[in-house]
Design a protein that fits this description.
alpha+beta, Helix Hairpins, D-amino Acid Aminotransferase, Chain A, domain 1, OB fold (Dihydrolipoamide Acetyltransferase, E2P), five-stranded mixed β-sheet, 25 strands
Length: 695
């Protein structure tokens, strides 16, 4: 979908738009502190360009169109080869039109394209002499950039010494991964500074900081390789003849980080259709990436095509950026709501001035916990940077501090539970009502009865409210003590519905341990983690006997999560005992408890083996619509099946994937599996493989 341009009505509005765009560009490239988000800036510049197309005799000299970085930044270190920006397209139709224009320019259809993610960072040129990194230069205005060589040695993926003693220039993007960004804000706020609004701004500000009391890591991804004036003649000639994809292989061989190491490596494509398919694949993976991207870069791969196409004053004619919908925008924080979850967790939620991001109107965003609000120095009335990618819950990155007016107000934290009025346990970062699950018993029971937990059909939210209001259940175990007479006494409970509900409750007693554990709603666990814990320990007794060190032996449980899980299981001991007495199953089918050399049930051998299944040691991805024996299984039930058979379920295809079960309309995951040479199975083939584990 094409991004709409800002409407500019007259010359005065045009002049103001040019001024706004230049100011925003200068702030963006200097330190990531622009008052405009990327989408607003793109619309503004497209509006300027549209107005100029209709009034070519009134174009202002400061106009950002046709200029690198909007013409707002400068530098004092000349580039030997211009370091240009990229023109943009926003839809398949615009991209197809660009390829047709490029074909006319070079006299034939492009034989091969390279397709890479457009990384959301700061473009730099790394100059090597004899294999040693000597100078680091920003893009600047394209003809000259700023010397930021003081940052050498602080950027991951940009080695100080190459694998070969060559004299070359490697161009690429400096950015912060999500983890690096969070770390940078922790360090920055600990030193009394304002948090960065987003990862790009954090990278731009950090890269330019020459004197700072702390350092934070950044990451480099190379996207270009070219000779320096003193490059050995034969190497210079070779670099000039290599296709872009080959240059990237050589860059990686020198020891420099490229996208080849990521889930969205650069590829080559022979047709427009293949390019657009890859665009969709990268877009689908965007939310899962550990770094930000704002589009896909598509280039004519062959050196001859690039040389024939040439470049303009702002951008090469042989490359284009296919921009994706913005996932970050600036809006205002209006108020903060405090909601109580099913386990008693008191969670703040931001109420926002509505803003459209990636096709959805966003009015709420997560705020994590009170400590996070304090660390980010958020205030009511703040302009905030809101991030959303795909189905990911929108989150506030940080306040846009330079837009503050002084009218912003502190956020008030609750002094008592906003749901029941009880005290609040503030001993951990996530505050919790002292009544715990009993504060929100209806939510806890509704969750436990859900399809992916105990799967008690007929026990929906309304029925749970009835049971709680009638005083028939005060915890999960009370469900299994309900009698026919008690249920018949409830409104709208006839004989048939009562018998069906009692049958469903009785069937729930036989659910595997992993589902019982998930139903308990232990903080830090969910469906996948509950299955891992149950598979590892095999019985509830072994789980309860485990200490934090033993719990850490379960994949995905670290030093912070393990003590919390152990502690909460101890708190739940009376409820677990009550469930056991009610006849609820406390074992995991097919799992073997780990053993220790001394037989101590609480001292586990981390090398202990479970019984091997047909998927033992395999990582399995399920994609597309299942048919045959698997047709009625939910995706969670498929994951359970995989793990019961000894495998590990995953949602994304990578080099670590062993098997992809591809049903109807499998799409990009099947394509990626084929590209990586990963074994594929139809639903029927997979069902035969795990037949012993199918009910």
């Amino acid at each position: 979908m094409t991004t709409p341009a800002a409407v500019i009505m007259d010359a005065a509005a045009y002049a103001q738009a040019v001024e706004d765009a230049v100011k925003a560009s200068a702030a963006y490239y200097a330190g990531g502190t622009s008052a405009l988000d990327d989408d607003a800036y793109d619309r503004l510049v497209r509006g300027i360009a549209a107005w100029e197309a209709e009034h070519p005799d009134q174009v202002l000299p400061d106009s950002p169109t046709g200029k690198v970085a909007g013409g707002a930044v400068e530098g004092d270190v000349p580039h030997t080869v211009a370091m240009l920006s990229l023109d943009n397209v926003f839809s398949p139709e615009e991209f197809t039109a660009w390829t047709a224009s490029l074909a006319r320019r070079i006299g034939h259809d492009v034989e091969r394209f390279s397709v890479e993610p457009k990384l959301d960072g700061l473009a730099v040129a790394a100059r090597y002499a004899g294999g040693r990194l000597r100078q680091l230069i920003t893009r600047g205005d394209g003809t000259a950039g700023e010397d930021v060589s003081h940052a050498i040695g602080t950027i991951e993926g940009l080695p100080e010494t190459l694998a070969e003693p060559v004299t070359v220039e490697i161009r690429g993007e400096v950015l912060m991964t999500t983890a690096q960004f969070e770390h940078a804000n922790e360090v920055r706020t600990a030193h009394g500074g304002q948090p960065f609004a987003n990862p790009r701004g954090a990278a731009a500000g950090t890269l330019r900081a020459k004197e700072r009391a702390y350092t934070v890591p950044m990451t480099f991804f190379g996207y270009g390789l070219l000779p320096r004036p003193s490059t050995e003649t034969s190497l210079a000639a070779r670099l000039g003849e290599l296709a872009h994809s080959d240059l990237m292989v050589l860059t990686a061989a020198y020891g420099v980080n490229t996208t080849a190491t990521t889930a969205v490596p650069g590829i080559t494509a022979d047709t427009v259709e293949q390019v657009l398919a890859r665009v969709q694949e990268i877009a689908a993976l965007r939310a899962e990436l550990p770094f930000g991207i704002d589009g896909i870069v598509i280039k004519a791969d062959l050196a001859a095509d690039q040389q024939t196409a040439g470049s303009g004053s702002r951008a090469p004619r042989w490359a284009i950026a296919y921009k994706l919908p913005a996932v970050e925008k600036i809006t205002r924080l209006l108020e903060v709501e405090w909601n109580v979850g099913r386990t008693g967790i008191i969670a703040p939620r931001a109420v926002l001035e509505p803003v459209e991001i990636d096709g959805a109107t966003i009015t709420y965003a997560t705020l994590h916990n009170p400590a996070d609000i304090t660390r980010r120095d958020l205030r009511l009335g703040d302009h905030v940077m809101v991030h959303r990618a795909g189905d990911v819950i929108p989150r506030i990155e940080a306040p846009v501090a330079h837009l503050r007016t002084g009218d912003e107000q502190p956020i008030a934290f609750p002094g008592a539970c906003p749901r029941c009025g009880a005290g609040i346990d503030t001993s951990e970062q996530r505050w919790r009502c002292e009544n715990g699950r009993n504060c929100h018993l209806v939510a806890a029971l509704s969750y436990a009865a859900g399809r992916d937990q105990l799967d008690i059909e007929g026990l929906g939210h309304t029925r749970v409210v009835q049971l709680v209001d009638a005083g028939l259940v005060a915890d999960l175990a009370d469900l299994f003590a309900l009698t026919r007479e008690q249920l018949l006494g409830l409104e709208r409970m006839g004989a048939t519905s009562t018998d069906n509900l009692l049958a469903a409750i009785a069937a729930a007693k036989g659910q595997p341990l992993s589902r019982v554990l998930c139903a308990l709603g232990v903080r830090g666990t969910g469906r996948s983690m509950s299955r891992r814990i149950a598979r590892h320990f095999a019985t509830m007794d072994h789980i309860r006997a485990a200490d934090a060190e033993s719990m850490q032996q379960v994949e995905g449980i670290g030093t912070e999560k393990a003590p919390s899980i152990v502690s909460e299981l101890a708190e739940l001991a009376p409820l677990i005992d009550k469930l056991t007495a009610a006849g609820v199953n406390m074992t995991e089918p097919g799992a073997t408890p780990p053993t220790s050399s001394d037989g101590n049930a609480g001292d586990y051998d981390e090398d202990a083996e479970h019984a091997a299944g047909p998927l033992d040691g395999m990582t399995v991805v399920v994609t597309g619509a299942m048919t045959g024996p698997l047709e009625k299984l939910s995706r969670n039930q498929m994951n359970e099946l995989i793990e019961q058979a000894g495998g590990r379920s995953s949602s994304s295809v990578s080099k670590k994937t062993t098997l992809v079960v591809a049903g109807d309309n499998a799409g990009s995951k099947r394509t990626k599996a084929e590209d990586l040479g990963i074994r594929l199975a139809t639903p029927d083939e997979f069902a035969a493989l795990v037949a012993d584990y199918l009910n």
